[in-house]
Structures are given as structure tokens and as C-alpha cells.
Amino acid sequence: MTVPRTVRRTAALLAVLTACLALLAPTAVASPTAAVQRTVVATGLDHPRGITVLPGGIVLIAESGSGGDGPCVPGAQDVELCLGDSGAITAAWRGHQTRIVTGLPSLGAADGSEATGPHDVALTPSGTLHIALGGTETADLRDQLGPDGQALGQLVEARLTGGWKPIADLTAFEAAHNPDDADVHANPYGLGVNGAGTYVADGGANTIVRVDRRDGISLEAVLPPRMTPAPPFLGLPPGTEIPMESVPTAVTRGPDGALHVAEFTGFPFTAGASRVVRIGDDGEVSVVADGFTNVIDVAYDRHRRLYVLEIFRNGAASGDPTGALTRVDPDGTRTVLADDLITPTSVAVAPNDDVYVTNAALQVGGGEVLRLRATRP
Questions:
Q1: Cis peptide upstream of residue 118 (ω within 30 degrees of 0)
Q2: What is the β-pairing status of strands 29-32 and 96-108?
Q3: Using an 8 Å Cβ cutoff, are 47 and 367 in contact?
Q4: Torsion of CA 296, 302, 305, 309, to 10 degrees
Q5: What is the pLDDT of residue 376?
Q6: d(CA 24, CA 208)
Q7: CB burial string 317-349: b at 16+ within 10 A, e below
Q8: SS3 for 123?
Q9: Residue 73 and residue 62: Cα distance in Å, rounded?
Q10: How is 182-217 classified by DSSP, letter by letter?
Q11: For the chain, what is the largest distance between any 2 Cα atoms, rounded to a whole number of angstroms?
């Protein structure tokens, strides 16, 4: 049987990763719970964001890094963010870990906090890695960072043989088209690969776009705002509603073949208003699962079960960093697998149903990836 070239490339990539990781020292420890066994599979991470599980159990982790020495631009809440090359992609396997892609741009505060940079990583059929880079949200701010900051807000491609390059400028696409007719913001976050195309959930633009080499960037869907009760601290009359943005953070193919998207929601981050939605062929948005708070990532297993990850189970405005992971069965039954995670940012499911999740993901050097494995009663 002739093996397709794309399969050979992927197999070669996996072989290289496995050989490199086998040379490193183990870091895994086990911590069983009542129903789920937890194992730490990667530690010492700088702001880990998206994760992807490859065949053979290799876990790829996007690290947003810790910024650098500058140039600098203003960030949220008057925090100055400075540019560096501390973003990376780490591979973890059987207790070993190593950074396989380094030198990716990262923005962070002087102490390394508030970092943004590599947000997600995915393996393409051709055996390359696609990486979503967050950034400055606008092209004007990005220009202030000079040449070294121009990859921020883009989709980049990396190879294990060395180097990476931008392939799709999501910030420029938002500036040129602004599909939701709102403020011009771009923040590429979650990735989903399907065939020759890579789907990007842009949490700044409130869009899902598709990137491929033939057609470039194309718009798949615009996620419209919804109305929500105004919080009391705004001092508005009782019963007043205000618009709340969608803020998509993850995109994947559902069991029905359609795109399924995690909605984080924007201000005022209403508790219980976060959803997982389906994007139909006509762009129509319908609800898959709701009643969650600040959903940051979603994944499916081979049994068509949905895993929903909340980064702040009590809401982004609560000050509580506790997150939760919930499994939703096809019949709607919900099972909480973990309700004590600290600012988790990503979930991925291996072919054997092992579940991987980031933990303490808003820390410099303190982030980790856990493997959750169900135990028999």
C-alpha cells in the first residue's frame, strides 16, 4: 500500500519528536482523586494556552511567554506591555518535555505577567505546525513594536527543521473588513484544522475565519452580540439590558461535521451566559450547550461526548481564579470532572479518551498540563 506523502510527513515529525523527548528527564507525578486520576505531564510553563494531543500521546503546548525588553505599548488597565521573543511551543511525552519551537513573539508586563503571544497550536495534514499569535489587537499598535512585532496577530507556520513564518495576517483582515461592524480589534485565539484549511476563532473580531493556501483568509461566521441584564454597579434602571459580545475562543468540528465554537462572552461577563454554539452551512448560529460561565475551550471524544472548559467558573469579574471541566454526554447528561482548576485555558482529548487540560495557566514558570484519566468505581 502506498502511504500518502502527507501521512509520511506527519509520521516523520512524530518520530523526531519522540526521539528528542526520550532523551530528557521525567517530570510526571500522579495525584489520584475520587473519580479521576490526575497526572502532571508538563510543568514550569510560561502562560500555557492551547494544547493539542498527537498520535502516540505527544502533547503540544502553546506558551505565550513572558514578554521582553521592548519596544512597549499600552495594554489593558494601563499596564505597559513589552515585546520579547519568549513565546514557544513545548512538546511533552511520557514524563519528558522540551521546547521545540522558540523565539516566537510575546508581549508581557515588566514582571512577565499579562503575557500574550502563542495562543494555540495545531498539526496540519502536511506535517507542519500552525500557531495562532495574539497581540496588540490593532495594526497601529502593532506598528509601534517595529519589525520584530509584526507576526503578532497572525497565523504562523513552523517546521521542526527550523524556523517559522507568518502565513495569514488576521489583524490586517480585521482592519480591512471589520465583519461585525464594531470596534476594529483582532485577537486570534483558538485553532481547528480540517483538511487543507485551518479555522481560527478570533476573540477580538468576534469571527470564525478559514485560512488555506489557495484562498487565503475567508470569513466563515460572525458571532453577533446578545442582550444581557445590566450589572447593578452601572447604576442603570432596573430591568435595563445591555449588549454583550460573543468573544469566540475555540473552534472544532463537531460530531455532526459542523463547526462548534466556544463563546467566552464579553463585558459584563454574565454568569451562566456562556455557551457552545454550532455554525450551520448558512452561517446560522444555534446552541449546542449553555448555562456555562466564561468557556475558554471545547473538545469532543470518540464517543461524541463534549468537554467544556470554564476558565472562571464564577465569572471573570468575580476575582475567583477557579475553573472547571464538565463533560456533556450526547443525551445531555453533565458530569463535572474537575471543579478546582486554577485559570485553565485549554482541553484536548486523546484517542484513548485520556483528557489533557492546562492548569495555573496565567503564571510565568508555574503553568502545567494535567492528564485526567477516569478510574473504575
A1: no
A2: unpaired
A3: yes
A4: -20
A5: 55
A6: 38
A7: eeeebbbbbbbbeeeeeeeebbeebbbbbbbbb
A8: strand
A9: 23
A10: S-----EEEEEEETTEEEEEETTTTEEEEEETTTEE
A11: 71
- C-alpha to C-alpha distance for 93 and 350, rounded to whole angstroms: 13
pLDDT in the model for residue 6: 38
pLDDT at 368: 97
Distance from C-alpha of 63 to C-alpha of 75, rounded to nearest angstrom: 19
pLDDT at res. 215: 79
Q: How many CB atoms lie within 10 A of CB 126?
A: 14
Task: Report the C-alpha gap between 257 and 266 in whole angstroms.
Answer: 27
Q: What is the CA radius of gyration of the chain?
A: 20
Q: Return the DSSP state at 153.
A: T
User: Angle CA(311)–CA(314)–CA(319) in degrees, nearest 5?
Assistant: 85
What length does the chain have? 377
Locate all alpha helices (DSSP H) within 105-250, ordered by sequence.
139-143, 170-177
**pTM beyond 0.85, yes or no:** yes
Note the Cα 104 to chain centre separation in Å.
16
3-state helix, strand, coil in the chain (%, to 5): 10, 50, 40
Q: What is the mean pLDDT of each run of 10 residues along the chain (377 residues)?
A: 36 44 40 68 96 92 95 86 96 92 95 94 92 88 93 93 89 92 91 89 94 89 93 93 95 94 93 94 90 97 96 89 96 94 97 94 94 75
**What whole-number distance in Å separates Cα of residue 84 and Cα of residue 80?**
13
Q: What is the pLDDT of residue 120?
A: 97
120 Cβ neighbours under 8 A, 6+ residues apart = 49, 50, 52, 62, 131, 132, 189, 190, 191, 346
CA distance 261 to 249: 7
Between the alpha carbon of residue 231 and those of residues 267, 268, 270, the distances in Å are 10, 7, 8
